[in-house]
Every structure is written in C-alpha cells, then in structure tokens.
Amino acid sequence: MPGTCVIGLQWGDEAKGKIVDLLTERFEIVVRYQGGANAGHTVVIGGQKFKLSLIPSGILRPGVQCVITGGVALHPPKVLAEIEELRGRGITLEKNLQISDRAHIVFPWHIEEERVLAERGGNGESIGTTMRGIGPCYRDKADRNLAIRLGDLYRSTFPKQVEQVVEYKNVVLGALAAGRPFQPLSASKIVAEYNGYAKQLERHLSDTTSYLHAAIEADRKILFEGAQGSLLDLDHGTFPFVTSSNSSAVGIASGAGVPPSYLKKIIGVVKAYSTRVGGGPFPTEETGDVGQHIRDRGHEYGTVTGRPRRCGWFDAVAARYTARLGGIASLSVMLLDVLSELPEIKICKAYEINGKQTLDFPSHVDDLRQVKPVYETLPGWKQDICGVRKMADLPVNARKYLDRISEILGRPVEIVSVGPDREQTILS
Ligand code: GDP
Ligand code: IMO
Ligand code: MG
Q1: Tens digits of per-residue pLDDT, 184-209?
Q2: Which of 60, 86, 108, 192 is deepest in the core (most CB within 10 A)?
Q3: Which pLDDT belongs to residue 269?
Q4: Among 34, 57, 129, which residue has the most ligand 2 atoms within 8 Å of its CB, making it the best to mutate?
Q5: CA–CA separation, 41 vs 76, rounded Å?
C-alpha cells in the first residue's frame, strides 16, 4: 500500500487534525515529520475536544502506532505535558508513541533568542511567530555546530555539548540584550533539566527511520500528517512570512526519511475560506464585517497562541499553486458550515498585478502585496448544513461552490466537513 499524506494547502489551521483522526481508522501507523510545538490541532470526538501539538492526531485511535520523526523540532517539556494530558484522559502512551533519536531539540536558548529578537524588532512587518523556538532550533540544525538531537541526550558527551553551546549563546544573547538586564543561561541547570526529560522520554526513543523502512517493506498502512500549511513552507511559501520547515508536500520524504517514490496519495486540506495567523500578505483578507462574521462562526482564534486569525475569501490562485506543488490527488474542504449564513460567497479566481491578470502565484512578497484579487461571486445557501452526511443532501448552491473550487484547482473533492466533530463529515 503506497504512502498517504495529509497536508494543508493554505496558511495552516485547515483542520488537518480532524482529517488525520478520521482517516486513521484505515491506517496502522501515523507519522509527524516536520514542525514542532508551533502546531495546534483540535480534534472533536463525540463532543469531547482534544488539543494536540507534537503528538500525531492518530493517537486518539487505540492500536495505532504514532511516530515523531527526525524532521520535527522537539521541545521535550511540551511533548511530556501533552503525554500527561492525554494519559489523564485515558489515552495510553507507551510503545504506541515512538520519537526519533534524530529529532532536533528545542532548548531554553532558542526560546530566549526568539524573544529577544522579537523585542528588538526588525525592519518592517514582523513575522509574528508562535514564539516556540522553532526558527532558532532549525537555524542551529542548519548551522550544525550548535545543534543537539534527542539521541545526544543519552550520551556522556551531552554536558560538554551544552556547556559549549551555552558559552556561545550567552555571548550572543548578552550582545542582543544591548545593555538591558540579562540573566545568563546556566549550563549545569539546563543539563539537569534535560537529563530529567531524557529519562522520561527513554521509553519512546527509537530509530524511526529504520522502523518506517521495515514498515514499508511489510506493506503496513502508513499515514503522514503535515503540520502548518504549504503557504508557510520555508522554500515555497510566502517567504519570509513562513515557518522554518518544509510544510508543503516536498517536506514529507526528507522529514520522515522515506523514499519520495513511496508517497503516492497526497490529500490537500483546505478551509472553505482563508485564514492566516501572524504577519505577511494575504490577498483575500476581509478586515470588515465579512472577516468578523467568519471569525465568529468559525471560532477563528489560534490553538497555540489564542491570537485572532485573519480571515478572508477562498483564494483559488494560492490553493491551485500549492495543489500543483504537492501533486495533490484529492481535496478535503473543511468548515463549509461557517459560510452557511452568507447571502453571497466570493472565490478569488485570478490575481491582477500591475494591471495584468494572472493565475500564477508570485514568488516575491512585494508582488503579492500588490495583488488585486479578481473575484467570482456565487450565491450562498442560507441553510444550516451541520447535520448533512451525504454530498447529495447538501444544498445545490453549496455543491456548486464545491464544484467551482474543484474545477479551478483541477482536483476532486473527496471529503467535506460541516462541523468540528468526527461525525460531521461527508465522504464522497
Ligand atoms: P489544524 O491545525 O489544521 O489541525 O486545524 P486547527 O485544529 O488548528 O483548526 C481547525 C479548527 O476548526 C478546530 O478548532 C476544529 O475543531 C474546527 N473544525 C474542524 N472542522 C470543522 C468544520 O467542518 N466546521 C467547523 N465549524 N469547525 C471545524
Ligand atoms: P498548524 O499545524 C497556523 C505561523 C505563525 C507565523 C509563522 C512562523 O496548527 O496548522 P513559527 O512559530 O512557525 O516560526 O511562526 O507561521 N504558524 C502557523 N499558523 N497554523 C500553524 O500550525 C502554524 N505554525 C506556525 O503564526 O505566522
Ligand atoms: Mg492549527
């Protein structure tokens, strides 16, 4: 059975967690391969809400093996808190959660670096990160000299490694503080703290790459769960207003350590509209009543930071770009119910840049800032659809709206979501 993947095609929060939980019924292994505690996935089962960040959303199905691979930036206290929270709610987490010894570790200096840099401010609009140390951790990974991976915590060289990094980081952080009060980091305290985490995580420690290779050879059913969205991809998103990992489909093979040829079915998840948290251009953003209506109906506030999400119309130019980038086989259109009360609904079907229409997504943010969306207006359905369970039972205007999205993106819509609960789903 070829690998199946779930990825977001917008700026994150497309309800990937819900789809992963739903599809896990048909899979044995669920793999998280990039990102870190910047992700926040909400899954609702029979009215019970679960919030997941580092642990794959597959954990809510008994008997499923969950894997966090080396592509993830792992913050040990966060994953341990998540394990505890799930345990408290009756979810077993023993051998069913494996964490790669290759995963890069988020340390206090990463969080501190991000905080200090954000306080200093840059030139221009801020990225508005989640402040989870993601950028600094991946930066150190790329730098190599200052990076520490989970496997390092179990070696006798770990205290020396921390000492060397702390010596360097104290110089940098001290300089960045530029005269403001600065509390230098203590290597011995950090070693003691992280030794404690290492002990608690030891039962989950694994060479997940070898595990997945064996699982592929044994033809086990593997589902890959993306975090963030393709427009936040470090290389292919709206740079520099992106995250620090490859959150589009291009990151699956590198993050998980599986052959690209194995990944055959990539499911693209979109909201029926658009949202974005943090800074950066957002061509279809609605800052007035429509945006507020969507925010209220969709409860569009960040799972991780609680920030109000910026809301707007469905951007088919952006989603077509990420669907092509990901070789998307089919679409899951989520939160369709949020649009139910609107008399008219718009889809951005082209961009106008400097007086010229295009379907191409600009590579530079300055061009994206210039975009005037070219809208097509469709009639709304003005009907509650939360209880609909069959495509044929959707109001005709809702079906027309989905057909139009499918047509512009050139992909079939296989799943439609009409409410947060696992049950509130339509499979075609
Ligand atoms: P993720 O990060 O992609 O997993 O998405 P989030 O969990 O951050 O955001 C999606 C939000 O929408 C969550 O609060 C879900 O419970 C909720 N949700 C999922 N599907 C639907 C839906 O079809 N309708 C509504 N109203 N809410 C939904
Ligand atoms: P899920 O998995 C939405 C955004 C941040 C910021 C930018 C960079 O829940 O879809 P970072 O902390 O990663 O350096 O921040 O990326 N961002 C997300 N937005 N959903 C997410 O994850 C996000 N993870 C990061 O708001 O704009
Ligand atoms: Mg989210």
Answers
A1: 999 999 999 999 999 999 999 999 99
A2: 60
A3: 98
A4: 129
A5: 18
Contact between 304 and 40 under an 8 Å Cβ cutoff? The reply is yes
Q: Choose the residue to mutate in 228, 299, 332 for probing ligand 2, maximizing ligand atoms within 8 Å of C-beta.
A: 228
| Per-residue pLDDT reduced to its tens digit, 49-64 | 999 999 999 999 999 9
**Using an 8 Å Cβ cutoff, are 108 and 76 in contact?**
no
Instruction: Give the CA angle between residues 222, 226, 418 to the nearest 5°.
Output: 95
Closest CA to 346 of 321, 307, 311: 311
Helix (H) or strand (E) holding 349: strand 344-353
Q: How confident is the model at residue 2 (pLDDT cuts 50, 70, 90)?
A: confident
Ligand nearest to the CA of 12: 2
Instruction: For residues 286 and 342, give the distance between their C-alpha atoms in angstroms, rounded to a whole number.
Output: 14
Asked if 41 is an active-site residue, the reply is yes
Which residues contact residue 424 at a Cβ distance below 8 angstroms, ignoring those fewer than 6 apart?
337, 386, 417, 418
Q: Which amino acid is at 192?
A: A
Place of tokens 């205007």: 397
For residue 294, what pLDDT is reported?
98
Q: Is residue 364 flagged as an active site residue?
A: no
Maximum Cα–Cα distance for the chain, whole Å? 66
Report the distance separating Cα 389 and Cα 32, nearest Å. 29
Ligand nearest to the Cα of 106, by number: 2
CA nearest neighbour of 187 among 115, 133, 135, 109:
109
Residue nearest to atom 5 of ligand 2 (CA): 129
Q: Look up the pTM and report it.
A: 0.97
Dist CA 279 CA 259 (whole Å): 34
Helix (H) or strand (E) holding 274: strand 274-276
Q: What is the residue type of 253?
A: A
Long-range CB contact pairs, 201-204, < 8 A, 24+: 201/76, 201/79, 201/80, 201/99, 201/150, 202/154, 203/94, 203/95, 204/97, 204/98, 204/99
Which ligand 1 atom sits nearest the alpha carbon of residue 418?
23
Task: Tell me, using a 6 A CB cutoff, whether residue 226 lines ligand 1.
Answer: no
Question: How far apart are alpha carbons 193 and 359 in whole angstroms?
Answer: 52
CA–CA separation, 127 and 243 (whole Å): 9
Q: Could you tell me the sign of the dihedral formed by the alpha carbons of 116, 245, 52, 204, in that order?
A: negative
- 170/85 Cα distance (integer angstroms): 34
